[in-house]
Task: structure prediction
Amino acid sequence: AMVVAMVVAMVAATGGWERIRVLFWLTVVGQAVNGNGWSPDSAGSRCTHVVGYYIDVDPVRFPDLTPGATNLVRVFAGITEHWSPVVIAELNGQQVKAVKFRGEFHWHHHAREDEMFLVHRGRFTMHFRDRAVTLEAGEFIVVPRGVEHRPVAAEEVEVILFEPATTVRTGDTELT
Result:
């Protein structure tokens, strides 16, 4: 009910559905969905609450509408599973994802996509076959396409990922 009230209030404040597209995540029969159908990043995953929302407005037709801010503390507070990125924004064919992780991910690479990892809170080490780079809060690293890598975190870390929407989380490796 709170989500419906929030969406109705935003639509009323902006002058109607034709002016705005609101994307929001909520629980429907235990599956994560967004306002336009299944979320491609969370299809099949479970959620128990609204993770967030963002507003997509045509800035040329409606320059008076400005996008809202995303509160990363709230976003990360809503993430309960490690290694399960949540899409928090999209722009120019790119996705911005929030993820918590701890432990080791598997070795993998992405043949066609570069990835950027920005540490919000905590620290982790990005392992490459020839070296390792440790990142702290406020630091980032870009992993070029085709480079084999493995993120490792001794303690829980909060990371923002920037990558093309086509990026498969497991890279060239299928997990079973």
